[in-house]
Amino acid sequence: MQPARDHRAGPIPAAVGIGLRPPHIEHVLERRPAVPFFELHSENLFCEGGPMWDVFARVRRDYPVSLHGVGLSLGSVDALDPAHLRRLREVIVRTAPALVSEHVCWGAVGGRHFNDLLPLPYTEEALAVMVEHVDQLQQALQRQVLLENVSSYIHYTHSSMPEWEFLAALARRSGCGLLLDVNNVYVNSINHGIDAVRYLDSIDPATVGEIHLAGFTRKEGLGGPLLIDTHDHRVDPAVWRLYAHAIERLGPRPTLIEWDQDLPPFEVLEDEARIATEHLHVRATEPV
Question: Which ranges of the chain have pLDDT less than 50?
């Protein structure tokens, strides 16, 4: 058995990690696979103790960890939930994760929560709300937070700027970093007819702290194909090509393989991570 290592103070490398889900926990604890880092959902640690914290403590000794939140609803016109913010701060203090991230979206209003990460209108008003809430979040946590672009299936006719300009302005005005989900960029490019390469080329490399990759489901709608960000397939070849372009432009970044439904054997996720790692190594070894 390998000796326990405490990774709490270490940064996440520019390597490929895996989102750790409950069906794979036993495998990870028993086999200790050579994965550079794992990501867990922040809200799963909001309990005071119990089995999840026991598992987390064991994983944390051997791997760097990032925490990814889904419940803050940063884009809602409602004030941030103080209880949620307090629990998140307590988890961050207790775990000292290498990265902390949330989403550029809303998911609650008037005390009612929706089971989705809903897109924002890309307007100055929505941007002002996001900046205010991100400022409040980063002040509460006393650290920079990465914000992820979300997939969407509707768009607002009164949006006054493209999504990439909204993200750039958010990072510039709030000081947050960006978690660039390349799969979501591709999904939105098909669903809304935007140029995915132009999207990536408009992102300031200095703002990108992490990249996500996942699989989608293709449906046929009345107006053509509709892509659903289901996280239950391998990464699509078109997304791999877009990821290669992202790495070429941004340079190597910590990258995460996400898979949340119909989970395959852990070895499938390791194979996805291997493919992403090959892209990173090609970029890292290219002559300057």
Answer: 1-9, 287-288
Query: Which of these, 231, 242, 142, lies nearest to 198 by C-alpha position?
Result: 242
**Residue boundaries of the structural domains of the chain:** 16-283
Closest CA to 182 of 205, 145, 150: 150
pTM for this one?
A: 0.93
Cα angle at 112 between 105 and 176, to 5 degrees? Answer: 25
DSSP letter string, 5-58: ---TTPPPPSSEEEE--HHHHHHHHHH----S-EEEEGGGG-SSSSHHHHHHHH
Tokens at residue 60, please? 């944390």
**Phi, psi of 256, rounded to the nearest 5 degrees:** -125, 135
Beta strands in 91-207 (DSSP E): 99-103, 106-109, 112-118, 146-148, 177-181
User: How far, in Å, CA of 19 to CA of 56, rounded?
Assistant: 13
CA distances from 269 to 32, 259, 265 (A): 14, 8, 7
Pick the CATH number of 16-283 from 3.20.20.150, 3.40.50.10260, 3.90.1170.20, 3.40.50.300: 3.20.20.150
Instruction: Specify the pLDDT at position 114.
Output: 74
Q: What is the predicted pLDDT for the residue at 97? A: 95
